[in-house]
Amino acid sequence: MEPTCDICIIEDDPNDLRLVQRIVDQAGYESKSAVDGRSAWELIEEHRPRVILADWDLPHCDGLELCRKVRATPELKSTYFIMVTGRDDKDAREFAYESGVDDYLVKPFDKTSLLARIRVGARMWEANACLRRAAITDGLTGLYNHDHFNTVIDHELHRARRYGNRLALIMLDLDHFKAVNDTFGHLVGNETLIEVSRVLNESVRDFDTVGRFGGEEFVIVAPEATLEDAMTISERIRTGIAGSLNVEALRDHVVTASLGVATADDARVRTSTDLVDLADRALYAAKNSGRNMVRSAHDLEDDEPIAIQGDEVESLRKRVAILSVRAKDVYVQTVSSLVQALEEKDPFTARHSVNVSAYCGKIAREMALGEAAITSISNAGLLHDLGKVGIPDRILMKPAGLSVTEAMVMKQVPAITVRILDHLRILDEEMQMIRYQREFYDGTGYPDQLCGDQIPIGSRILLLANAFDAMTTDRIYRACRSIDETLDDIKAHSGTQFDPQVVDALCASVSTHREEYLNRVRATADSLRSPAGVL
Fold first, then answer.
1. How far is CA 34 from the centre of its chain?
2. CB under 8 Å to 182, separation ≥6 — which residues?
3. In what order do the strands lie in the sheet with 80-85?
4. What is the phi/psi pair of residue 254, to 5°?
5. Any idea what DSSP says for residue 255?
6. Roughly how many angstroms between the first and final C-alpha of the chain, as a whole number?
7. CA–CA separation, 487 vs 260, rounded Å?
8. Which residues pair with 217 in a beta bridge?
9. CB neighbourhood size of 113 (10 A)
């Protein structure tokens, strides 16, 4: 739930309340106020403010108790809590911070100090909001990702069951999409997926939810939609994709889609898994019937009966998912051993991929991206330099600066890596991260000069982890820097080369786990002094 106000002011002194209210109003913030802890909590629950300004001594529920309630509420974990109080002693401050207070302002205060703290709180809230959005959205299309969409489906089905509402689910898969990637390249394929997401957003109703289930498969949850409504929406999507994709590079190539529709009132639907399974089966019935069409799960009742129950489907899916994860782990471990053998040719880059993988994982975990994303980003860190196998040793181990031609050759490493891994679909996410690992936040990187959130979050993390390990490790052409010197340099390039949120996450991770970072840097340095110690 998004906030409905910027600031909640909780103050029982009418003069102080008027003063604070006037300052925040003049600064352009939207605020709500309360004069006691009980009404303040009701206000906070209703409005979910970005920042709370609370006095310590309040009737019914004091400021610290209020802060503890805020911290215990998951929906309010990003709310910035500023204690505004007349208590000006060290013990009070420490107790307040231990209770979850983010900032502490002593009365009487000046306008500048108050607004500075509010601005910090607002920026912190927005940064956390960006991280939350990144964790639940697909980096390419901006749609909800697979993990979050499963939560949406569960929620909507539960609500439909509780209130007796209608609900429809639409599954969509692009026809022969591999031919687009093979013929026109992955960049055009990505542009096509972005255009498809535009068509989907323009074709659904305002209260429908669109997500990317993975690859070229999309899903739409349509609350309060009958089967006829969902079929109409699906047909609008189908014709829109076939007739209005704005991808110049496709020229005369027409992209089409097959769609399957299922509804919650189907007697076979007991769980959200059943609903997804029926829509999925209807989708593949459309593909088997010739593609570029819409099929309903209701059409499957007579000629295509369901062979197994929903719980059996879920059990089989889980088994396949486990096997897929194991296969991916084995593949990644096998390839990583080749990477390490490659790095051993140059002692100055030995351990590099292992280090980058570890740093990627720590940064991603600090950003709370979820276990699946953390694993994929760590894998990308491990595999990101595999393309160096195609680079001559005289360039890889050159002690001086590279010529323009040699630098151009080195720029091909990400593309070569992706070419090596391209045959394996289970590494699709990692390949996307590796492909764009040299894109800079301000758009000055390569290969496509992407900027900001256009760059996959995994690529932004990989870029920073790569730089951190490179700067803290000796190279044949320069000595390493300390961790603090490295962080200072990285912060100097925050917002240009690096994503500021990723930089903040690295700094926070180093602060929390400094000894682990120091040990890894020292171990790498020791391996240079003792070749036998190279991994």
1. 36
2. none
3. 31-34, 7-10, 51-54, 80-85, 103-106
4. -100, 125
5. P
6. 48
7. 50
8. 173, 214
9. 11
Phi, psi for residue 385 in degrees, rounded to 5: -105, 15
Closest to 13 in 3D by CA, of 68, 93, 84? 84
The amino acid occupying position 2 is E
In angstroms, the CA 468 to CA 356 distance is 8
- In sequence order, which ranges of 62-185 are alpha helices (DSSP H)? 63-71, 90-98, 111-136, 146-163, 177-184
Measure the CA–CA gap between 47 and 41, rounded to whole angstroms: 10
Q: For position 453, what pLDDT does the model report?
A: 87
The string of pLDDT tens digits covering residues 48-105 is 999 999 999 999 899 999 999 999 888 888 899 999 999 998 899 999 998 899 999 9
Domains of the chain: 7-136 (3.40.50.2300), 146-307 (3.30.70.270), 316-533 (1.10.3210.10)
User: Bridge partners of 357?
Assistant: none
pLDDT over 90 at 312, yes or no: no
Q: What is the pTM of this model?
A: 0.48
- Phi and psi torsions of 17, nearest 5°: -60, -45
Write out pLDDT tens, residues 181-227: 888 888 999 999 999 999 999 999 999 999 998 889 999 999 999 99
Kindly give the pairing relationship between strand 217-223 and strand 257-263: unpaired
Whether 191 sits among the annotated catalytic residues: the reply is no
Rg (CA), the chain: 27
Residues 6+ positions from 284 with CB-CB distance below 8 Å = 258, 260
Side chain identity at 294, as an amino acid letter?
V
Cα 63 from Cα 54, distance rounded (Å):
6
Q: Are strands 103-106 and 167-174 parallel, antiparallel or unpaired?
A: unpaired
What type of residue sits at position 427?
L
Q: Which residues pair with 520 in a beta bridge?
A: none
- State the catalytic residue, choosing from 11, 156, 191, 216: 216
Spatial CB neighbours of 239, under 8 Å, sequence gap ≥ 6:
none
Q: Tokens 């196998």 correspond to what residue? A: 389
Give the number of other Cβ atoms within 10 Å of residue 19's Cβ.
Answer: 17
State the DSSP H helix or E strand holding residue 219, giving kind and residue range, or none if neither. Answer: strand 217-223
Of 260, 264, 256, the C-alpha closest to 300 is: 260
How is residue 21 written in tokens? Answer: 């209210």
